[in-house]
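Researcher: We plan to redesign the surface later, but first we want a full-length starting point. Tokens attached.
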């Protein structure tokens, strides 16, 4: 088998074949494997292996190398270049270049190179949707389905989240997007959502500036939007809370995607405390990297992994099912529900293998037959 190369367009075509349910099921498999393994298994050849990412600083980027293995699926390494503040404006505007290499377990050969620029956002959105469906099922009793979704940010992460959430929750009729500025990216996102989901009232607005004492109307509208939200999704690099806890109504579900260093905070400590038991994708990663949790002194006993909330081992289950006892434990611990994601390498393994399978099925990409000829 030759080397399969998938461009950004190839990846778009391959991922367009996935349904939201298929993506959620894939992440359910990832997280049940993650949470079901002992620490010893996580570090061994069998089970899960998530080495700490390696970093090289180039002249304009911080280059991250993230190898991972999930024995139930395979092995891969993702390479991401994060522009530094000194990077040229055009490099910063283009976002984060990323590629994933898929490795054949039997031969050790690289079997695919995938443009992963959008895949990180897609796998994160699928994880958030899995968490959301546990606490806010799409088919709720009359009157309890989510109607208002508020998103903060306008990058690939938010675009992927909104695409999946609006497709999965037909009850959502209002989608309010706030961004640092009303830039071309925000306007393009709103236009795209209106075209794809004409029944949804989608709006895009710049976040009110705290230093602008005259923008009282904008601040009031923002606080009203947060209070009205059934679901809030944040994906920013903010180092200060985006809104105070007092804005958030009881019963709200929050999916926090942005922070991945101790210095980054999308919500304040009061709101973290209101969440009670926090749901995270990966306990070790979240407690070491999520600035909101670190500042609030959240410890191992204060969090549950997403994989601990679902079961897939019952042969009678056609998909996965929520563990009702664990769901109720989280609900009873606070008056809001918080899912905090910092990302896990084995998500990249899973989504990369799924994309390769889809590409081969639909004859996408370029194959280099003699790449590793002997």
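Model: Full-length starting sequence:
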């Amino acid at each position: 088998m030759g080397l399969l190369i998938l461009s950004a367009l190839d990846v778009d075509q391959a991922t367009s074949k996935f349904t939201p349910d298929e993506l959620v099921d894939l992440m359910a498999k990832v997280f049940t494997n993650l949470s079901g393994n002992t620490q010893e298994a996580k570090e061994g050849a069998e089970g899960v292996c998530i080495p700490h990412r390696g970093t090289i600083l180039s002249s304009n980027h911080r280059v991250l190398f993230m190898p991972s293995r999930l024995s139930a699926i395979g092995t891969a390494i993702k390479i991401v270049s994060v522009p530094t503040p000194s990077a040229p404006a055009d490099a910063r505007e283009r976002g984060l270049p990323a590629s994933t290499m898929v490795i054949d377990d039997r031969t050790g050969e690289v079997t695919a190179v995938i443009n992963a620029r959008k895949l990180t956002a897609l796998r994160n959105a699928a994880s958030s949707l899995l968490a959301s469906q546990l606490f806010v099922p799409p088919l709720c009793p009359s009157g309890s389905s989510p109607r208002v979704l508020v998103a903060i940010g306008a990058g690939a992460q938010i675009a992927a989240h909104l695409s999946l959430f609006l497709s999965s929750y037909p009850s959502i009729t209002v989608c309010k997007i706030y961004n640092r500025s009303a830039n071309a990216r925000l306007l393009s996102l709103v236009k795209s959502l209106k075209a794809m989901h004409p029944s949804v009232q989608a709006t895009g607005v710049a976040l009110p500036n705290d230093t602008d004492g005259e923008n009282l109307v904008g601040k009031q509208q923002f606080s009203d939007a947060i209070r009205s939200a059934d679901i809030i999704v944040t994906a920013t690099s903010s180092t200060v809370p985006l809104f105070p806890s007092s804005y958030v109504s009881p019963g709200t579900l929050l999916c926090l995607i942005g922070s991945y260093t101790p210095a980054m905070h999308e919500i304040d400590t009061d709101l973290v405390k209101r969440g009670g038991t926090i749901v995270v994708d990966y306990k070790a990663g979240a407690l070491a990297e999520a600035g909101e949790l670190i500042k609030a002194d959240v410890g191992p006993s204060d969090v549950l992994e997403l994989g601990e909330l679902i079961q897939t081992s019952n042969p009678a289950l056609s998909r996965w099912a929520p563990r009702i006892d664990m769901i109720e434990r989280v609900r009873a611990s606070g008056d809001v529900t918080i899912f905090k994601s910092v990302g896990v390498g084995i998500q990249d393994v899973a989504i990369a293998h799924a994309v390769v399978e889809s590409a081969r099925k639909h004859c996408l990409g370029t194959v280099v037959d003699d790449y590793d000829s002997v």
